[in-house]
Structure formats: structure tokens, C-alpha cells
Design goal:
The complex is a heterodimer.
Chain A: H1 2-24, H2 32-41, H3 43-56, H4 65-81, H5 86-111, H6 115-134, E1 139-140, H7 146-153, E2 155-157, E3 167-169, H8 170-188, H9 190-200, H10 202-207, H11 212-238, E4 240-241, H12 249-261, H13 271-290, H14 295-320
Antiparallel strand pairs in A: 1-4, 2-3
Helix pairs in contact in A: 1-13, 1-14, 3-8, 3-11, 3-12, 3-13, 4-5, 4-6, 4-11, 5-6, 5-11, 7-11, 8-9, 9-11, 12-13
Chain B: E1 3-13, E2 16-27, E3 31-35, H1 42-50, E4 57-62, E5 65-67, H2 72-77, E6 80-83, H3 95-100, E7 107-108, E8 112-113, H4 115-128, H5 145-157, E9 167-171, H6 179-194, E10 198-202, H7 206-212, E11 215-220, E12 223-229, H8 235-243, E13 262-270, E14 273-281, E15 285-290, H9 296-301, E16 310-315, H10 324-329, E17 332-335, H11 339-343, H12 350-355, H13 366-379, H14 396-409, E18 414-418, H15 426-441, E19 445-449, H16 453-459, E20 462-467, E21 470-476, H17 482-489
Parallel strand pairs in B: 3-10, 3-11, 6-9, 9-10, 15-19, 15-20, 17-18, 18-19
Antiparallel strand pairs in B: 1-2, 1-4, 4-5, 7-8, 11-12, 13-14, 13-16, 20-21
Helix pairs in contact in B: 4-5, 5-6, 13-14, 14-15
Classes of the chains: A mainly alpha, B alpha/beta.
């Protein structure tokens, strides 16, 4: 009973927030245009948060995703400048993400450094690399191929539904695809089961025949890959690459997973609830922007809402015991 | 002698009675056993005595005078002391500090700890136990299990002015001790008796209770079943009172022959383990015994790839598995000693816990997992609400059955059992022994460690004895007595320290 209440408290709060904005912004908030716009704005965060969920299932986390996103964008841009074909530049950038993730995985799973310390270190390393490769400048203009940035402006037109001049943004579709793949991975594969087992009790999982080191290594690699993907999406959207443009993603991604954890049965991370967490953060941000709330105040409010949700979940869970 | 009368104790949790109208009278200088299966109400009764949960109803009289007992402070003031089963000492601090833990440290100038006085109080408490020889400045974590238990008891003995202890409650004190270490504890209990204190002794170990207790009270389903002097009852009668059914013998006999097929063969040294030389046949149950931490766990875990044998070692005709993953894949199943920390994901579903080592295909099927969980749950007679219930919500015995269900699911060829019935009640123990016998009849070889010697003698065909990591004997258990076996644990050639 109290579990039900705990699980639905966050969702109820979310519904109230939507209702509030819908009443205050009757003409602009609950419109197809605005919602599609939100989905595009949130697409990078969705990808990072979904893949962050993979490591957080094991009680690990990855602080380096933001700077990995920046690094991947820069790598692709630099290769564009060097006249690499688009597919090769993108593959190379994704490979950098995968290798960066493997490096995190080696530090955490093989050597046994706490994820906080290890990924804090690689956060700085990746960020330094991005600045070094780009020489600290933004790469933009004619160096970025039109096909690359054009992809981010494309999408599936919705004229058939009578919504003229509207389309489902391509980046949103990418994000939904990543969430779907992550969902299948976590909920419907043996690998996902093993991840949750490692999160439940690492020593017991090891003795029950789970190759804990390998599982953790793969998980970190996937998180790195997701971060690089998000970095490329960002670069495509703004048609440029800046060595610090991914910086905000890490905190929001972790906050989204935490918000999601307040809604699940046992308080464990689940990727669909992470998606709800991302939508909450994005919708609050969008609504407050439209209400012309100062962006600094917005940050304070978002932070307080995350804390409130987690506190309510924590207190009601303790009571339930 | 002090008379402690607890009458009409009742306690319900959310409408479910955990204890109903139970009365208990304890007398100074006597050891009173409290027995019952898991869930019979023993823990609730102890919590009422300790004042940690409020009773719905309870009257307490000390020598005919009523006292109130509502809080832990009341219980302490009344002179009740509690020693619990887990050895929760603080390993990083000294023996003396551990003994004084939970007491006010003696002070100097009102703020500085008076270390000399602290050590004096600690050594007085140890002296009462006849353990004055212990080094007060040693780190508690470096001690053997029996010395750790002594520290906990000493902690309950620390003299506090004006507060003479009149009741000691020992909750499964031997759960973590080997046979020889338990003997030391029993000597301590004799001393406490001699000081005129009443002792309430909770244990699942029948032989122990029959040996050291004067009276026994049996609870079943929260109700009082009987109270009799030990001298006027028998093991069978107590077990019958606890379970409500007749139990012919505590261990099911071997019903099938052992085959000639050799499953495993080990000879040589492996780290701390020396002079290993044994083979294991399909269907055979081999016990591994010795003093605490003589290398029993290490020996079992050789088959999980922890440690390398320098010499010859094979399992199923090939080298030993290199890690637990390979071990499970090759038909080795393992039940670890620490069920909660090494065995289970407590906050996960029973289903997730049972199927874990058997996830083979890339995609997982919830339907197949649920079907397997229900089938295995039935095979081990586990009581659960459903496959999605958290395993941590089950009773100790049912948690152990969940670990068994996991092991049995892969139809193992070699089963490694570490302390398989620790903290498990009599009824569940019997069912677990039956499972082991059934597996053995199917040709599964079993290696079993236990600090419960009757269990080794009752279940195993042979027993391998370790002395500080060295294999010193391998004996058939037929006609072997506990006393013979304990003698084997000690190095007879050098003089004991």
C-alpha cells in the first residue's frame, strides 16, 4: 500500500506540474508543436540518461559522460575538417566513446577504483582532450557538412495527421530508438538480468557464476558509446562542435535516473522510468522558460524538485519497512 | 535464588499474533532452553524481554515484586543482559574497547577517556569468564571466532555499580562456533550459573540443549507447548513438540549405493591448504571438518577456481574450473556460508535469485523463469507468496531453500555445501537433509562443511579432517563419534599452546 503511494507520488507531482503549465500557458504549452520541440531538445539527454541507467543498475555511475559527449563532437568535427567521409568520422567518434567507456570500465571493474574517483578523473581527461584537439575553439561553418546538420533538421512529416509543417524530429526518433534498445537490453536479455544481479549483491553474483568484471566493463563501454552518440546529436543540431558543449548532460542524466528510481517497485533504476524523469526535467524547464522565469531561478527550482522527489521516496520507503 | 516470572506475554504485528499468552518462569542458577522452529515466537519473546518492542500484554515479577518493562533501559535496569547470535564486534578497535562498547566509558576530568580504568573494567569482565589471558590491546578483528564470542559475553558482564545482572539471554551463541569452541562457551555458562544468574538459552542445536540446559520451554506458532526439566524429556519428544509431528531421527539415512565413478580427485598443496589427498565418487557425501577457519571454506572453493592446486587436481576428467562462472557451467553448484552477504540479492525477487546462474540464452523469458521458479520452489518446499516476492522477506529457513533451489535447478554433478543449515529450524533442516539425500541418490557428489558435528556424522559418508589447512585424516563416519572426531581436530604431536 505504502509502496504504491511512494511509486505514484512522483508521477502525481508530474501530472500536477503539467496541469499547472497547461492552465498558465493555455495557448502554447500543450500543443503538438511545443511537445515535439521538447522531444527534440531532450533527445540528447534521453540518450545519455538511458545509457547512464545501464551502469546505475549496478550501483555504479559515470561522471565522464558530459565531457565524452563534447569530445566525440570535437573528434567528428576535426575529422570533417580533414575531409573524412561523414560515416567514417561518425564511426571514429563513436569508437572514441566506446574506448573511453572501456577505459572507465578497466579502472572500475578490473583495477577496482571507486566509480566516483575513476570517472571524475576521466571527466577531466576527456575534457582536456577535447580542448586540446580543438585548440579550445568552436568548429563551425563550412567545415561541418550540410548532410550532417541537415539530418538534425529533418524528420517524419505529420501532414497525414493534418498537422501541417510539423514533423517528428529525426533526433527524437534516434533517442526513442536508443531507449527502446536499452529497454530490451535491460528488461529482456540475460545480460540485463546479470546487471541487476550485480547491483543487488556483487559478491553473491560472482559466486553464482556471473562474470562480474566482464559485465561491468561492457556496461561502462555502452555508457561511453551513448555519451558519444549524444555528443554527435548535439553537434548536428547546432551545426558546430564546442569543446564544452556536453557539460550539462551529466548532472541532468543522473538526476533523471534518480527521479525514475523514485517510481519503481524496489527503488531500482528502470529505463522507462528514467525516460519519465527526463521528460519531467525537460517539461519543467520548458514551462518555466515560457513563463519567463529567470534561468538561474529555474536551476534552483529543478534542483529542489529532484531533491524533494528523492526525499519523499526515501522517507516513505523507510516507513514501509 | 532469584525468581523471574513473565506471565501472559502477547504480541501481534498488524493483527497477526506472533506470541499469544505465553508465560515463562526462570530461576537463578538454572539454564532454561527456549526452543521452537523459525517463526514460533522465540525472537518476539526475546524482544519483549529486552524492551525493544512494546508488549500488547505482559506481567513481569522479580522475586514476587512486579516491575515495569517497556524500554531497553528498563530491561537493563532490571539486570537483564542479551548476547545475540551475530558476532557484531568492531574489528578495527581493541579488545578492551569492544568490551566496553555500549557502556559509558570511564572518564577523567569529565571529558578524557580514562584508559587505565577502561582496561581494568574490561579485564575484570574477562576474569569472570576465566579468560584473563586475553590481550586487551589486540585488535578485535584479529581474534578467532570463539574469542570474539567471549568479548561479547564479557561486554554483558561489565560491572556497573548498583546493577547486578540477574538474567542472561543467549540467542544462538554457538551459531558461529565450532564444537571445541562451543565447549569453552559452556564452561562460561557454568560460571554464570554458579554466580546465581538465570540463563535463557536459545539454540537450534538439539544435542547442545540436551547437554547443558536444566529446563526447556517449547513454543509453536506463538503458543506455549510445554515446559519440562531436561532430565524428564528426550530429544524426540522436544522435536515432536516443536514440529507437532513425529520425527524418527534427525538425519535421513543413506538409501542408495555410492557408485564407482570418480567425480573429482585432488592431491597436492593449494596455498594454505597442504597435503590434500582425496577423491570423490558420484553420489558420495564428503564432510570437511576441523576447528574454526582450518581451511574448510578454502577447500570447497578450490572447485570454484579460488586458489590453484600445485599437484594434481581434476573434476569430471578435466582441470578444476577457473572461476565460479565456469564451475556453474560445468555442473558445480555452490551454497555459500554467508547466505545474506554471499548468497542472495535480498532486495530482488525470488525468481531473479533462483534462475541467476542458469541464464544461458541471450534473451530472457519471464514466463520460463516464473515456471522454473515455481517448479524449484515446490521441489524444495519453499513457502513464498509468489515468484516476485523479495527474497529478503522470507524466513531464514526459506531463504536457505531459495539458495538450494538455485543450486538444484541445474541438476548439479557436484554440490558444495557450506554450513547448509546454519540458523535454520528443525523442520526445514530435515527437508534440506532430504534434498541432499535425493541429490546424492541421483549421482551428485557432495562436499559439506559444518561446525555442527552431528550433522557431519549424520549426513556424510567420509569426513576429511583439516588442522590449520593441513589434511591430517580422512575417516569413514560409520561408528565414528563426535568425541573421536574432535580429538582429530587437535595436533597431538606438538604440545598445545
Amino acid at each position: 500500500m505504502s509502496d504504491r503511494l511512494r511509486q505514484s507520488a512522483t508521477l502525481l507531482g508530474f501530472a500536477l506540474i503539467i496541469l499547472f503549465f497547461a492552465v498558465r500557458l493555455p495557448d502554447t504549452f500543450l500543443t503538438a508543436r511545443n511537445l515535439l520541440n521538447i522531444s527534440q531538445q531532450l533527445s540528447m539527454l534521453m540518450v545519455v540518461a538511458a545509457t547512464m541507467t545501464i551502469v546505475m543498475v549496478m550501483n555504479d555511475f559515470d561522471l565522464s559522460v558530459g565531457s565524452m559527449a563534447s569530445l566525440a563532437g570535437i573528434v567528428a568535427a576535426v575529422l570533417f575538417v580533414a575531409d573524412w567521409p561523414i560515416w567514417a568520422a561518425l564511426s571514429a567518434a563513436l569508437l572514441v566513446g566506446l574506448l573511453g567507456g572501456v577505459f572507465n570500465g578497466i579502472l572500475v571493474a578490473v583495477i577496482g577504483i571507486l566509480p566516483f574517483v575513476a570517472t571524475l578523473g576521466t571527466l577531466t581527461v576527456f575534457s582536456g582532450l577535447a580542448l586540446y584537439i580543438s585548440e579550445g575553439t568552436t568548429i563551425f561553418g563550412r567545415d561541418i557538412p550540410a548532410e550532417f546538420s541537415g539530418f538534425a533538421r529533418g524528420g517524419i512529416p505529420l501532414e497525414a495527421l493534418g498537422l501541417e509543417r510539423l514533423k517528428i524530429p529525426a533526433l527524437s526518433l534516434v533517442a526513442f530508438a536508443v531507449i527502446a534498445v536499452t529497454w530490451v537490453l535491460l528488461e529482456h536479455t540475460s545480460f540485463g538480468r546479470k546487471l541487476y544481479a550485480v547491483g543487488g549483491n556483487r559478491e553473491a553474483a560472482h559466486l553464482a557464476g556471473i562474470r562480474v568484471v566482464r559485465v561491468r566493463l561492457i556496461a561502462f563501454a555502452l555508457t561511453g558509446l551513448g555519451a558519444a552518440g549524444a555528443g554527435l546529436m548535439f553537434a548536428a543540431r547546432v551545426a558546430s562542435a564546442n569543446p564544452t558543449q556536453g557539460a550539462g548532460l551529466m548532472l541532468d542524466a543522473i538526476a533523471a535516473v534518480f527521479l525514475g528510481m523514485t517510481m519503481t517497485k524496489r527503488g531500482e533504476p528502470r529505463v522507462l522510468y528514467t525516460l519519465v524523469g527526463v521528460l519531467m526535467l525537460g517539461i519543467i524547464d520548458n514551462g518555466l522558460t515560457q513563463l519567463r522565469v529567470d534561468s538561474f531561478i529555474r536551476e534552483i527550482l529543478v534542483g529542489l524538485i529532484v531533491i524533494a522527489a528523492v526525499v519523499v521516496a526515501h522517507v516513505s520507503k523507510r516507513r514501509g519497512k | 535464588m532469584t525468581q523471574l516470572a513473565f506471565s501472559d506475554m502477547s504480541k501481534s504485528y498488524g493483527g497477526t499474533p506472533a506470541l499469544a499468552d505465553v508465560s515463562l518462569t526462570l530461576t537463578g542458577g538454572r539454564v532454561h532452553a527456549l526452543m521452537g522452529e523459525n517463526g514460533a515466537g522465540k525472537s518476539t519473546l526475546i524482544k519483549l524481554l529486552a524492551g525493544v518492542v512494546p508488549a500488547d500484554e505482559m506481567r513481569v515479577e522479580v522475586d514476587g515484586k512486579p516491575i515495569t518493562l517497556r524500554t531497553a533501559a528498563d530491561a537493563h535496569a532490571a539486570g537483564f543482559r542479551f548476547i545475540h547470535q551475530e558476532l557484531n564486534i568492531v574489528p578495527q578497535v581493541t579488545v578492551a574497547e569492544n568490551i566496553l562498547l555500549g557502556h559509558a566509558f570511564p572518564r577523567r576530568f569529565g571529558f578524557a577517556v580514562d584508559w587505565a580504568a577502561l582496561r581494568k573494567q574490561a579485564s575484570d569482565a574477562l576474569a569472570m569468564l576465566g579468560a584473563s589471558g586475553m590481550d586487551l590491546n589486540a585488535m578485535a578483528g584479529d581474534l578467532a571466532a570463539d574469542d570474539k564470542m567471549l568479548i561479547k559475553i564479557a561486554s554483558a558482564l561489565v560491572a556497573e555499580p548498583g546493577q547486578e545482572a540477574c538474567l542472561y539471554v543467549l540467542d544462538e551463541p554457538t551459531a558461529a562456533l565450532t564444537g571445541a569452541e562451543s565447549q569453552k562457551l559452556f564452561a562460561v555458562i557454568e560460571r554464570l550459573k554458579a554466580r546465581g544468574a538465570a540463563i535463557l538459552y536459545v539454540s537450534h542445536r538439539m544435542d547442545e540443549v540436551m547437554a547443558i540446559c536444566d529446563d526447556v520451554t517449547v513454543l509453536r506458532n506463538g503458543r506455549h507447548v510445554m515446559t519440562v526439566p531436561i532430565a524428564r524429556t528426550s530429544k524426540a519428544q522436544v522435536i515432536q513438540a516443536m514440529t507437532g509431528k513425529d520425527v524418527a531421527d534427525a538425519y535421513p539415512p543413506r538409501a542408495s549405493a555410492i557408485s564407482d565413478q570418480v567425480v573429482a580427485r585432488v592431491s597436492g598443496d593449494a596455498g594454505r591448504l597442504r597435503s590434500l589427498f582425496f577423491d570423490l565418487k558420484a553420489g558420495e557425501i564428503l564432510g570437511v571438518a576441523g576447528l574454526a577457519e582450518a581451511g574448510q571454506t578454502e577447500l570447497l572453493r578450490l572447485f570454484l577456481g579460488q586458489g590453484r592446486v600445485a599437484g594434481g587436481a581434476e573434476y569430471a576428467g578435466k582441470a578444476l574450473p577457473r572461476n565460479p562462472a565456469e564451475a556453474w557451467a560445468r555442473g558445480v553448484a555452490h551454497i555459500p556460508q554467508e547466505r545474506r552477504s554471499e548468497g542472495l540479492m535480498l532486495e530482488m525477487a525470488i525468481r531473479s535469485n533462483i534462475v541467476l546462474p542458469h541464464l544461458k540464452s541471450a534473451f530472457a523469458s519471464l514466463r520460463a523463469e516464473t515456471r522454473d521458479t515455481l517448479a524449484m520452489g515446490q521441489a524444495v518446499q519453499m513457502k513464498m507468496e509468489g515468484p516476485e516476492q523479495d527474497v529478503g522477506q522470507l524466513s531464514g529457513g526459506n531463504q536457505q531453500k531459495a539458495v538450494f533451489a538455485r543450486a538444484l535447478m541445474g541438476a548439479p554433478k557436484l554440490l558444495l555445501l557450506e554450513e547448509p543449515t546454519r540458523g535454520v529450524d528443525v523442520g526445514a533442516k530435515w527437508e534440506i537433509y532430504q534434498l541432499v539425500r535425493e541429490l546424492s541418490a541421483k549421482g551428485c557428489a557432495v562436499i559439506l562443511t559444518s561446525s555442527d558435528l552431528p550433522e557431519i556424522l549424520g549426513m556424510c559418508d567420509r569426513v576429511l579432517v583439516l588442522q590449520d589447512g593441513k589434511q591430517t585424516a580422512i575417516l569413514p563416519t560409520q561408528d565414528l563419534t563426535s568425541a573421536d572426531l574432535v580429538t582429530e581436530f587437535y595436533d597431538t604431536e606438538s604440545t598445545p599452546a
